[in-house]
Amino acid sequence: MKILLTGANGYIGKRLLPVLLEQGHIVYCCVRNKQRFTHKELPHQNLRLLEVDLLQPKTLYKIPKDIEVSYYLIHSMLQGTEDFDILEKKCAQNFVDYLKTTENRQIIYLSGIANEDKLSKHLQSRKEVEEILKQSRSYYTILRAGIIVGSGSASFEIIRDLVEKLPVMLTPKWLLTKCQPIAIRNVIEYLYKSICHKSCLNQTFDIGGTEVLTYKEMLQQYAQVRKLNRTIISLPVMTPRLSSYWLFFITSTSYNLAVNLVNSMKIEVVCRPNDLENLLDIHPIPYKEAIRLAMGNIKQQMVISSWKDALSSGRLSNKNFKYVEPPSFGCYFDTKSYPIGDIEKTIDNVWAVGGDRGWYYANWLWQIRGFIDKLFGGVGLNRGRRHPNEIEIGDSLDFWRVLLADKQNMRLLLYAEMRLPGEAWLEFSVNQKQDKTYLQQKAIFRPKGLGGRLYWILSYPFHVFIFNGMIKGIINYNK
User: Fold this and answer.
1) In whole angstroms, what is the distance from residue 387 CA to residue 335 CA?
2) Cα gap 338→336, rounded to integer Å
3) Cis before 43? omega within 30
4) d(CA 268, CA 275)
5) Would you say the C-alpha torsion 402, 30, 312, 219 has a positive or negative sign?
6) Which of 228, 394, 434, 404 is nearest to 324 (CA)?
7) Beta strand 213-214 with 178-179: parallel, antiparallel or unpaired?
């Protein structure tokens, strides 16, 4: 069967793709930038890659006319608090308009549980997208999920951050709101088992796990699984704005995501009864077991996808991926070059930079810079990295984004997503000079206005101190 997979670089798409390929389907993956698609399934005889932007209708002609089933996994919640709903509706409308020209028979959409009369902007937007997709000539299958529990999911990572970091939590009252979490494995099951199933056509289903829990109970059960003693005290005075800042500073979430999550978490997301799990022969995984499965993947370094790797989890635009060669005009540079003996060890150290390993020198200064960035609404250092020693294009790496990760040619290029009066890049490469091998580390800064120039001048002494130590640390580090 020929299947169209939108959102192929997203958290759900990356996990659904290998399952569809394993079942023998021909899968057309829609991505906005082919450079970011570094899926481990490549190359695969049944995988086709399409560079399509649903906000640009002229790009949709690349989608073949003979597709049979389409997955709509496009969400724009992270883009901002003001207009993400407008973007979502525009994407959905462009998608439906084009599908009317194809042989597509079914659209499968992963939405959010929206059974309350008063919805958050996030959930209301999902519901409006549902209505647009129903206008298609194709059958529709809408699966509504609440909290998804899996390694790398935004909800799970927030729960993990809170419980792991805080022995005592003073929490907002919305932690008493009820929800029905579902394991990521069950979500993927529902998605692929719905393909052309007669009972799923032109139907909307809520999907969830076996338990209805409050967010407080979810935190407590996570602590029990991890064998951590935690005290949780709910405060009635914590406003939505304070709650958003609380999540933003304590967890790895962006402020935009924190605002939308807080607004959604005030609303109960409990499934309306249906018989879908029996129709599709799905066995819901209990919440504690879902946590154990997620933690197992984390410990085994098998996190397939993470919400942090979406471009919208920072401030980088898709267009910045054209800068695989950073700009030079109007830029300031700090270039360091040191001879190396063990090339393989040095490159492995470059590929392990950030996250738990840190930045090889003056990590406390990097932490201070991350805290300052958080104060000004930036992403800070809390995002860490997806894997301790693997890097793919598009990955988040603390407050950097990976633009290029070419280990064979020994070059890594990062783009800064921290708050700056300008733009910044950090590049590592290996070069040969007069029969010697050197590691080159280049910091590039393109200032914005007078403020940007003053920033570079005032911070330059710190850069000299930090960058000198960093390149030496990379070369000399031994596990």
Assistant:
1) 27
2) 7
3) yes
4) 21
5) negative
6) 404
7) antiparallel
Amino acid at the residue 82: E
The Cα–Cα gap between 424 and 415 comes to 6
* Beta-sheet strands, E only, within 320-372: 332-339
Give the burial string for 399-416 (b: 16+ CB within 10 Å, else e): bbbbbbbeeeebbbbbbb
User: Could you tell me the two tokens for 247?
Assistant: 């999540």
**What angle do the packed helices 215-225 and 154-165 form, to 10 degrees?**
70
C-alpha 326/C-alpha 412 separation (Å) is: 12
The pLDDT value recorded for residue 321 is 45
Instruction: Name the amino acid, one letter, at 392.
Output: E
- Model pLDDT for residues 339-379, shown as the tens digit of each residue: 998 999 999 999 999 988 999 998 888 888 888 887 777 77
Tell me the C-alpha distance between 90 and 132, whole Å.
10
Radius of gyration of the chain (CA): 23
Strands (E), 33-80: 47-51, 69-72
**How much is the pLDDT for 371?**
83
Q: 465: closest CA among 360, 361, 346, 381?
A: 361
Distance CA 450, CA 338 (A): 33
- DSSP-assigned letters across all residues of 205-221: EEE--S--EEHHHHHHH
Instruction: Write out the DSSP string of 214-253.
Output: EHHHHHHHHHHHTT---EEEEETT--HHHHHHHHHHHSS-
Type of residue found at 69: V
d(CA 449, CA 460): 17
| Structure token pair of residue 323 | 């800068």
Give 111's contacts (C-beta < 8 A, 6+ positions apart).
126, 127, 129, 130, 142, 143, 144, 145
In this structure, the number of other CB atoms found within 10 A of the CB of residue 83 comes to: 11
Give the separation between CA 318 and CA 239, rounded to whole angstroms.
34
The phi and psi torsions of 49 (rounded to 5 degrees) equal -110, 125
pLDDT one-digit tens code per residue, 1-25: 999 999 888 888 888 999 999 999 9
